[in-house]
């Protein structure tokens, strides 16, 4: 295989963009296990007190992720996120106002491999979420497993992430006065296995938990489609029925996380590696769907709102697809 090396004379801005994305990829692929290793390693060194004191603090702070986390504006506003935004680039597109007197559930589609669009738009200040939607605070959901890693749990909480279990996700929505937006990558870990370039398959047909959560809490629903999310990585062919997909599904059902075998480019060459391609992402925030509080919705009411949400997501896709490089004959497929 011929290796296409990066030229030596690359502008500093592009090098900083690559560095910013490299640290983000490492954070989500290797930082959690590294933090676990460091925590236990320190116990057998003269710095053992660090891990002991952290364990004491952890026991006191254990429920913080379930109570809205502890976003650190300093981290969310770091200059490196601007470099990450410009690497692809990533743009947040507003189609309607979101009244800060209400709470919202934003359904993010598709998940992609590493949800780059969701993280950059809703966990950092780089794409202007606060300016586009003044008065709203966004909370991106992440698998509860990651909040059990020492040190790493603090990093992701500081970035505005909270666990995706029912109680944790509902906590911001129960706050009176509005101003909270919970962002859910609805397709989750399973949809990551379907994140192949050129595909527009959304795992939504049977996903109704987030619809019910919105109804129970009286939070308005907002469909979000991230054009380009599936274009960032190639993935080893894993069609349903193959041994690879069987193994991936099995691991996902046991561990709760998926293991897509993805690849793209490297840091110093463009032929292989785990760095995403430089391809644009346009995350389009749709119009809000009004939802009345209903703590015990009937199945028919749940199904009706779910169908309305799918219809609105389809409209959003159709209205913007040609603008962002999708063929006019391409349809959004719900699975």
Q: Which key features would you list for this structure?
A:
12 helices; 335 residues; 11 strands; single chain; alpha/beta; 7-stranded mixed β-sheet; 39% helix
Low-confidence stretches: none
How is the largest sheet built, in terms of strand order? 1-10-7-2-5-3-4
Report the total helices. 12
Element-by-element helix/strand order: HHHHEEHHEHEHEHEHEEHEEHE
Question: How confident overall, as mean pLDDT?
Answer: 95
Helix content: 25-40%
Share of residues in strands:
5-15%
User: Oligomerization state of this entry?
Assistant: single chain
Shape: globular
User: N- to C-terminal separation?
Assistant: 36 Å
How many β-strand runs?
A: 11
- Supply the helix-strand structural class: alpha/beta
Radius of gyration: 20 Å
What kind of sheet is the major sheet?
A: 7 strands, mixed
GO molecular function, one term: diacylglycerol O-acyltransferase activity
EC number: 2.3.1.-
Subcellular location: Endoplasmic reticulum membrane
Protein name: Acyltransferase
């Amino acid at each position: 295989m011929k290796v296409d090396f990066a030229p030596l004379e690359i502008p500093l801005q592009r090098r900083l963009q690559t560095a910013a994305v490299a640290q983000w990829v490492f954070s989500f692929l290797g930082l959690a296990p590294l933090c676990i290793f460091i925590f236990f390693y320190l116990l057998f060194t003269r710095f053992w007190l660090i891990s002991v004191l952290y364990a004491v603090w952890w026991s006191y702070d254990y429920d913080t992720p379930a109570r809205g986390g502890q976003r650190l504006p300093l981290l969310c506003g770091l200059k490196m996120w601007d470099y990450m935004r410009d690497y692809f680039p990533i743009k947040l597109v507003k189609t309607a106002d979101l009244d800060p007197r209400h709470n919202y559930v934003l359904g993010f589609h598709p998940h992609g491999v590493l949800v780059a669009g969701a993280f950059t738009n809703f966990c950092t200040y780089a794409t202007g979420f606060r300016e586009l939607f003044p008065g709203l605070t966004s909370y991106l959901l992440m698998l509860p497993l990651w909040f059990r890693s020492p040190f790493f749990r603090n990093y992701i909480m500081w970035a505005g992430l909270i666990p995706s279990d029912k109680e944790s996700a509902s906590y911001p929505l129960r706050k009176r006065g509005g101003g909270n937006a919970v962002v859910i990558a609805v397709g989750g870990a399973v949809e990551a296995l379907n994140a192949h370039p050129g595909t527009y398959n959304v795992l939504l047909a049977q996903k109704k938990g987030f619809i019910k959560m919105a109804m129970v809490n009286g939070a308005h629903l907002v469909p979000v489609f991230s054009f380009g999310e599936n274009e960032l990585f190639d993935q080893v062919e894993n069609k349903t029925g193959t041994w690879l997909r069987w193994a991936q599904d099995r691991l996902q059902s046991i561990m709760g996380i998926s293991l897509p075998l993805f690849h793209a480019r490297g840091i110093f060459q463009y032929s292989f590696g785990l760095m995403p391609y430089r391809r644009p992402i346009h995350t389009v925030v749709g119009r809000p769907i009004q939802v009345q509080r209903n703590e015990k919705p009937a199945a028919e009411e749940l199904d009706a709102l779910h169908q309305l949400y799918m219809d609105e997501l389809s409209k959003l896709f159709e209205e913007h697809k040609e603008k962002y490089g999708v063929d006019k004959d391409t349809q959004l497929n719900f699975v």
